[in-house]
Amino acid sequence: MLRLLLVDDHPLVLSGLSAVLSGEPDLEVAATAPDGAAALAALGRTRVDIAVVDLRLPDTDGTQLCRRMLLSHPGLRIVVLTMHADEDLVLNALAAGASAYVLKDSAPADVVAAIREVSRGNLIIGARARPALAGSLGEPQSRTIGNLSPREHQILDLLARGLSTAVIGQRLGLSPKTVRNQLSTIFAKIGVTTRTAAAVVAREAGLGRTRPGP
User: Are 109 and 128 in contact, with CB atoms under 8 Å apart?
Assistant: First the structure.
């Protein structure tokens, strides 16, 4: 049974989403919250596996809330559920640690599927949000990790886990400059332009399943 925290400042959204998710045999709505402060308080008193978070909250930015929740609960998985999709919003949410980005006008089954996939360690970008990443992810045919060397594959896996350039270098016995050079080569090979976009490609390919602890 996956225990969920729903975070949204619209009561109708909370009640509707809660009703949909509670109807699934493997999902349980453990808590709801109308803002960031209430969400953090709920995490402090209730065991939660996955948080479903809106980006527009009255007391905080949802992306910042993702960071704060993961700082105190690194094992938590986060599904962003929002009305808004542009490149910066999606990339910033993923960079903050969200494991899924889904739009509110998606079918309920798609939201349920995203929650289940996130519980398995997968990265999910809803079909309706994916066009926002077209500029960062390049052409579909270039987004493959099959042409990476074993060392490049290893570096990309660590990047997808959220590790910094310095920490990747420490793990592999490489200088930060060498890691940066390797990352530039990796980005060119997989057709992306940013670390977050590289992490998206990597996690969709099954890398970076384990996020680092605090």
Answer: no
Give the model confidence (pLDDT) of 23-77 as tens digits.
Answer: 999 999 999 999 999 999 999 999 999 999 999 999 999 999 999 999 999 899 9
Rg (CA), the chain: 17
Locate 36 and state its tokens.
């960031």
Q: 3-class DSSP state for residue 193?
A: coil
How far is the CA of 1 from the CAs of 4, 22, 26, 45, in angstroms? Answer: 10, 11, 5, 18
Mean pLDDT over all residues of the chain? 88
- Identify whether the C-beta of residue 53 lies closer than 8 Å to the C-beta of residue 66: yes
Q: Which residue has the higher pLDDT, 125 or 130?
A: 125
Coarse DSSP helix, strand, coil percentages of the chain, rounded to the nearest 5 percent: 50, 15, 35
For 25, residues 6+ apart whose C-beta sits below 8 A from its C-beta are: none
Do residues 78 and 98 touch, judged by C-beta distance below 8 A? yes
